[in-house]
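A quick word before the example. In earlier lectures we treated sequence and structure as two separate objects. From today on, think of them as two lines of the same record. Here is FAD-binding protein written that way.
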Amino acid sequence: MGSTWTNWVGNQSFTPSSVAAPRDEEEVVSIVRHAAERGTGVRVAGAGHSFTPVVQTDGTVVDLSALTGVVSTDPLARRATALAGTRIRDFYEPLWRAGLALRNQGDIDTQQIAGAVATGTHGSGTRYTSLSGAVRGMRLVTASGEVRDIGEDQPDLLHAAQVSVGMLGVVTRLDLAVTDAYRLREHVSLRSWDDVMEHWDELVAEHRHFGMFWLPTEESGALYNLDGHGERLQDQCYVKVYDEVGPEVADDDTVGRRVDRCYRIFPMVYDPNFHELEYFVAIERAPEALQAMRELMLASLPDSIYPLEVRTVGSDEAFLSSQHGTDTVVISVSGTPGTDYWAYLRSVDALLARYDARVHWGKLHFLTPERLHELYPRAEDFIAIRRELDPQGMFLNDHLRPLFA
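And the structure line, produced from the sequence above:
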């Protein structure tokens, strides 16, 4: 047996039969073919930032850490090609030197790009899709050991592959749409819930990036390293707004008012002291859903002590995307490791189900096959492509099989 694999927060652990760390695409092909001959499962581990058991297998875990690097940039076409194990933070300097940047990103930048894409990882702002929506092509080693190049000339296959949770094969490289390099001005403020709700449409529409943490108690901020600088935190919203600025605006390192290159503004530091559930509601239903969440959390203390994180994401066409066909508001809640918080999370699931909420594939969720097909109109098309590329289910596991077999 192989060694025990554990994710970054320690809520997922298992012992695969082997761990393989290929140094190039040829070795990936060899690993997959060997597994096919033995009839064993294969799952790919990114940086381990998923809270769900997406990596779990009693077969082979593939570690793509050695397949790293931005291999090409095209400033005219605004494209970049990177190997699958490249971490988000490793895009920064190569893109910037070419006058480019990622279109958008989240506040954690240590994920590998293939894993972030596979699970639908995102930043905030309705003008921009998740990282998956920026994918314009990828190379994939399928269950037969065939290397497939998927591009925009195969739209259904591309939209299946953009958010695949690793079920179509082992991704070895990706082509991303990027944008011209840009700088951001940060504005962080504490605002009341009523003030944020009153100005909701403006906050969503008028800023490149809008996100917030609603803090149910005075102790909530410290759990995510949010500093109120002496101001009251209970029942306040810690609001983050980022907007682009031109070269005439000087860099500034003032806390809460920084101006700098985009990739220096986006990241935050989180302690791995939480387990997260993240659901997505169509943007027009968001204010009602958020009001209901606030009421639920106030009634669920102390299980609900962690901040409620709220962001937005723009629509895309990926079959399993939480933003398929609609802009969304992201609603993230967390549980405390070592406590029995499952009743609280199930109550969140039941509440947000009333708003037809979709899920983040890398975060805790309670999706059933029935809800999958109700909420994701192209789910059956994804499953058909999955069966075609992997008829024996090599890339499924016990977590994914009930939904996608």
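Notice the following. The first strand starts at residue 5 and ends at 6. We will return to this example when we discuss secondary structure assignment.
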